[in-house]
Specification:
Family: Belongs to the class-II pyridoxal-phosphate-dependent aminotransferase family. Histidinol-phosphate aminotransferase subfamily.
Radius of gyration: 20 Å
Order of helices and strands: HEHHEHEHEHEHEHHEEHHHEEHEEEH
Cofactor: pyridoxal 5'-phosphate
Pathway: Amino-acid biosynthesis; L-histidine biosynthesis; L-histidine from 5-phospho-alpha-D-ribose 1-diphosphate: step 7/9
Protein name: Histidinol-phosphate aminotransferase
Subunit structure: Homodimer.
Number of domains: 2
CATH superfamily of the largest domain: Type I PLP-dependent aspartate aminotransferase-like (Major domain)
Oligomer: single chain
CATH topology of the largest domain: Aspartate Aminotransferase, domain 2
CATH architecture of the largest domain: 3-Layer(aba) Sandwich
Structural class: alpha/beta
Strand content: 5-15%
Length: 365
């Protein structure tokens, strides 16, 4: 059977190993598995959200409000924009897909950092678009500008992951705005803000002002998610904010009822619990300092992170072996060998979980 030729060049996205798989493969008790590979919120989600999901379970047989008016209204208030500036996706991944199908094709290309979120390249493959990457693994805007000017006629979308997954580094907002000002208006610039809550908390210079972004630059799109700081990874709710004209075009690609009734309710309630978000952010960065101290003590290189994870880079140790040995102990981390790095990415966990990671990691290094 013949399939679309674009599929031949697509590699599957490698998600973090699920707890169930580790239990089956290594015989580790379910309660002993520590999952720190997928950047999920170690505190879970807000208690208010949990109660709302239980109360809403009786409506599981009903389709959600497809206008998603209440969620859009809350997001519009948060970012000081209009509801017409917002589209909701099944995770922010789906809004990447919307943008790709709206702007890219086999005669165009996208531009990304040397090491960044893998789904940009995968979705580009869906439509047969080329992918240009900077030589630097992190976001080097001088290299972005050079590549853009060289391939301006081809490049239809530029993706800036701010902060960057899987590395954790983050551009200053001012530098981002300066860069966008040099880009033609027909090139869509997508700001992936999946970890913006963390970056903004740590350093206000990293904060992307969404209202300013879309008002000053009509060719921009900001993406956010409820999967990280809000702890709703299992609910799959993301969104994009852009000009009304861009959102109107993207909406033509959205299928009806693309998130669930329970997901919609969870996201609406999550936006009202700022205390939970503050607790999440404070835990994250107080614990991250311990990971930095551990790295310095043991001579491990690390990337200064503005996210809810930290990347350890090894010189004379094999990161894959370390990752596999920890897996046998029930500790799931992210091996970055597929990104061409001898490194592991570790989600910042709760204090007791992090102590366990340090104890087992110390044995291996």
């Amino acid at each position: 059977m013949k399939f679309n030729k674009h599929l031949q060049n697509i590699s599957n996205y490698e998600a973090g190993k699920p707890i169930e798989l580790v239990v089956r493969e290594f015989g580790v008790k379910n309660d002993d598995v520590l999952k720190l590979a997928s950047n999920e919120n170690p505190l879970g989600c807000s208690k208010k959200v949990q109660r709302a999901i239980k109360d809403c379970a009786k409506n599981a047989s009903l389709y959600p409000d497809d206008s998603m008016f209440e969620l859009k209204e809350k997001l519009a208030k948060k970012y000081e924009v209009k509801t017409q500036n917002i589209i909701i996706g099944s995770g922010s991944d789906q809004t990447i897909e919307f943008a790709m199908h709206a702007k890219a094709n086999e005669n165009s290309a996208i531009l990304v950092a040397g090491t960044t979120f893998a789904m940009y390249e995968i979705y580009a493959s869906h439509v047969g678009a080329k992918v240009y990457k900077t030589n630097s693994k992190n976001h080097n805007l001088a290299e972005f500008e050079e590549l853009y000017n060289k391939h301006k006629e081809e490049i239809s979308i530029i993706f800036l992951c701010i902060p960057n997954n899987p590395l954790g580094e983050c551009l200053d907002a001012k530098d981002v705005y300066d860069f966008i000002s040099k880009i033609d208006e027909d090139t869509l610039v997508v700001i992936d803000g999946a970890y913006q809550e963390f970056a903004s908390f740590k350093d206000s210079n990293k904060h992307i002002n969404v209202k300013k972004l879309i008002n000053d630059f009509k060719n921009t799109m900001y993406m956010g998610t409820f999967s990280k700081a809000y702890g709703l990874g299992g609910m799959r709710v993301g969104y994009a904010v852009s000009s009304q004209s861009i959102i109107k075009e993207l909406s033509k690609l959205r299928v009806p009822f693309n998130i669930t009734t329970l997901s919609l309710k969870a996201a609406i309630v999550a936006l009202d619990d700022d205390k939970f978000i503050q607790k999440t952010l404070k835990n994250n960065f107080s614990q991250m300092k311990k990971f930095e101290k551990f790295a310095l003590k043991h001579g491990i290189d690390y990337i200064k992170s503005y996210t809810n994870f930290i990347t350890y880079i090894f010189k004379d140790k094999n990161a894959t072996e370390i990752s596999q040995n920890l897996l046998k102990k029930g500790i799931i981390l992210r091996d970055l060998k597929n990104y061409g790095m001898n490194a592991i990415r570790i989600t910042i966990g709760k204090p007791k979980d992090n102590i366990r990671v340090f104890k087992e990691l110390e044995k291996l290094i």
